[in-house]
Amino acid sequence: MTDPTYDFHGQVALVTGAASGMGLAAARGFAENGAAVALLDRNADAVEQAAQSLVDAGHRAIGIACDVTDEAQVAAAVDRAVETLGRLDMAFNCADVQAPPSDAADETASDFDQVNAVNLRGVWAAQKHELRHMRTQGSGAIVNCSSLGGLVGLPERAAYHASKHGVIGLTKSAAVEYAARGIRINAVCPGVVETPMVAGMLEGQAEAMAEIIKQQPIGRLGRADEVTAAVLWLCSPAASFVLGTALPVDGGYTTH
């Protein structure tokens, strides 16, 4: 079975958290289907290398250092992407951090603030400044990265799951607001996907992670390209009647 292909030639995509994991996979997916891509990440060296790898493969791409917790940086990065690449048609807001597992009575305010600054406020800022350009065009598609943690609750994950539930609320509200303006906004909710962040969790929280993986009926970790496939579809004309959804890409985790 071959992956579906899309014609994104003449279009521009922006991806946050694009230096590794699901963000980098999505950036590659957009590029391989013809889009010019702006890759944003707080790791300046890594995002430049990621963008250069796409350029070396014959694609049009730029890497921009951007900390999504700083709205001014987000605004400047989105503006730079549009100035350099000419427009903005698609975005995948994927920057993400985990909070250390903690009893809900023991979670620190600093951990709560950090995870929500990246996972929720960062998505809010990116979406806000993407919409500034898309509403002028009267077209666009945005996909925000939530998580299975946006759909369920798990022990010792209160701060992280709060941030991911928030992303879904943000997505649904903005989707309704912009539906009639030619802009579609959706979210994806990945399960446990093989990424550098998950690799660290597997090492540091082996028993808990093994239990979570067992809850994925498919019986394995997800792959970043499987999340990319959902993101590309949601951004494509094939999903023209889909908006405000929180699409699980979780190997069946949230079915039980």
Written description of the protein model:
The structure is a single chain. This protein has 256 residues and is an alpha/beta fold. The chain has a single domain, classed as Rossmann fold, CATH 3.40.50. It is 47% helix and 15% strand. The chain has 8 helices and 7 strands; from the N terminus they run βαβαβαβαβαβαααβ. It has helices spanning 21-32, 44-56, 71-85, 109-137, 158-178, 196-204, 206-214, 224-235, and strands at 12-16, 36-41, 61-65, 90-93, 140-145, 183-190, 246-249. A 7-stranded parallel β-sheet has the order 3-2-1-4-5-6-7, sandwiched between helices. Strand 5, helix 5 and strand 6 form a beta-alpha-beta unit. Helix 6 crosses helix 7. The longest helix is centred in the middle third of the chain and has 29 residues, at 109-137. The model has no long low-confidence stretch (mean pLDDT 94).
Tags for this model:
single chain; alpha/beta; Rossmann fold; seven-stranded parallel beta sheet; globular
Straight-line N-to-C gap: 28 Å
Number of strands: 7
**Broad CATH class:** Alpha Beta
Assess the beta-strand content as a share of residues: 5-15%
GO molecular function: oxidoreductase activity
Protein name: NAD(P)-dependent dehydrogenase (Short-subunit alcohol dehydrogenase family)
Family: Belongs to the short-chain dehydrogenases/reductases (SDR) family.
Pfam family, one: adh_short_C2
